[in-house]
Amino acid sequence: MTGSNEYKLNQGPEDSISAVKFSPSTAQFLLVSSWDSTVRLYDVGGNSMRMKYQHSAPVLDCAFYDPTHSWSGGLDTQLKTHDLNTDQDTIVGTHDAPIRCVEYCPEVNVMVTGSWDRSVRLWDPRTPCNAGTFSQPEKVYTLSVAGDRVIVGTAGRRVLVWDLRNMGYVQQRRESSLKYQTRCIRAFPNKQGYVLSSIEGRVAVEYLDPSQEVQKKKYAFKCHRLKENGIEQVYPVNAISFHSVHNTFATGGSDGFVNIWDPFNKKRLCQFHRYPTSIASLAFSNDGSTLAIASSYMQEQGDISHPEDAIFIRQVTDAETKPK
Amino acid sequence: MAEGGDADWELCKENIQPLKGGRAIAALNQALSLQEGFSSATNQHKQAFESELRLYEGDDPLDVWDRYVKWTEQTFPQGGKESNLSVLLERAVMRFTKENKYHNDVRYVDLWIKFAENCPEPLDVYRYMQAQGIGTMQASFYIAWSEEYEKQANYHKADTVFQEGFRCHAEPLEKLKQFHKGLQARVSRQVMTGMLEEDEEDAARVKEQERMSLVDLKHRGKKKAVAPINRVGAALSGKSSGLSSQGEAAAGSGSNTRFRVFDENRAVSAAPAEPRLESWMAPPTSRAKENEQRPEKWSSIKMPQRSRFGHVVVAPPSEPNFQPFVEESDQPPAMTPCKINPAVNSVLSARKPCREETPLKRLQEHSQQQASGGASSGASGGAQSGASSGAQEQSMYCKELLLSGASEFCFEELRAERYRQRVSAEPSGREG
Description:
Chain A is mainly β and 324 residues long. Chain A is built from 2 helices and 30 strands. The two termini of chain B are 29 Å apart.
């Protein structure tokens, strides 16, 4: 049951939600991409949809370049940028296969996209134009920016770390320490490491520094599992988002739960009520005051009927997100 | 077709693996013209096949696998890991072991034969097939099996296989007869050349001298042992080691008997255990042990080492006389490779999979699991029982669908494929 600190967004997308992202400068605006082929901008405070633009096929990810420009890509393989002031589209470029991830790197001022065509492409947001294509060993499933580096998670449980200022070679090649497919990777705000979640109820905390002493600190834990009749039901962990101030992170799984974790003390801080269906995406606002929760069935168990997809906005408290 | 003088394939003939049935020249040229062997078109095509595998709902799923395998062979002439062919074959073969309707389908049998040729011990695979009743009505099965025996110079067994084929009335009968005649012709030719070589022993040694490889050589010269330049005939110290042409072998083996009678009752040395016709469930142990040496101390020679200060440092003793204490926390968390899914296990990982594990063993384990666990492979939703940990963990997602092809899929890819199919089915909503 939603309390007074949580409400559902009106005029939500008409199909599953693929990603939610807050504006970099304010907790007021939220960008939402969906399988109904639209990208929508919401005024979170006023609970209304401000703008909507179309792709020709479902959109898999979106990101803010700056508070007035959104970038998005999906199954139509086109990377689009949309000016939120003038409500104008521009097609920046394409991949050879659907675009799975779109992120912005402020330190290097470049947009990064990852696709199932096994490449990561960089884009200069000012012109805008392509700034390079870099092949990955496998299809890209997730990526996250950490300072001037980007961490790419691909099929085959591989993880690659690239230095965005020097894309001539891969800085680090790793294998996920989890046994199953990688669902999501998010970098720590302090850029020291990243969190990786898998399709079978596990999350790993990893560090970027390759030295032995630092690598010893890495660990993994089980989560998003439910016990029913003596059988442990294992759910995919689809979403991760970091609280920018406290360096704690939230995970969302197909069990419909959102958990908040303290990675340094290795404790769970909080678990919210169960949402109607799988959590597809999570986003903390830049000041850490608000958490957007996309409760949206992802067809993990086939194309069956499911509760309605919705986006919940929750005002989070220190008690829920601050390490104790 | 752009022929005119641009036969690029001529330049890389050695890199092209031969295919029975030949290669389509257009596909070959295209594959060779790609620098990295990977193009986006290839990837897209592969993805399309993978999607089709997962979402196929018709009566003949074997057709998709069959086309996928054939496309893979044509598109990746060099073979190799990128093609994923061995994984694909293994998957295809495993997928239908329980489907009796396919057991004698010529396409399925061909897949098995390709799979067998990829395995370290094809004979074991053929015996397994026979025990399971796969291909026993197909001539191609017996032909491939006997070819394998022939490669091992086991002509007796090779003939037995054909006899078995005739007994089972394998089809097409004419083809079986034709290949059997071919075998007989080859065998008798060998016998004839063996006979001739015996007669012209000395003459042959002098005239037709074939250079023998890997043979010990008699040395010339009194003080220093100098290897002769001509490594033929009299220069050889003996014929015990080294490779020799087949003619020599035939001549050498039976020096007393001039005429090698085709005796069915005589057991030939190279044969492994008699083919058992009862159900054959024991996993074959890996027999290719000649090339695997246990690591041993290399030699007893010790090199005197000079440290920086000019002292001679003795090499440390090889075995410590105490058991070093290993703290548990020192063990780094295991980078466990995913043993469940061979397709995913293509990444270099800290732990290597067990060497004894062959594709055939995996297949047998898989079919045993299927028989005992009764795991259903429903395509539409529902929780699937985790076969690995004894029904204590249940994966709440369509695991089989994600992993059923030769490469993995994520939820979004699967859903994207459903979307694409839905869109192409609606004429009004068709995209450009």
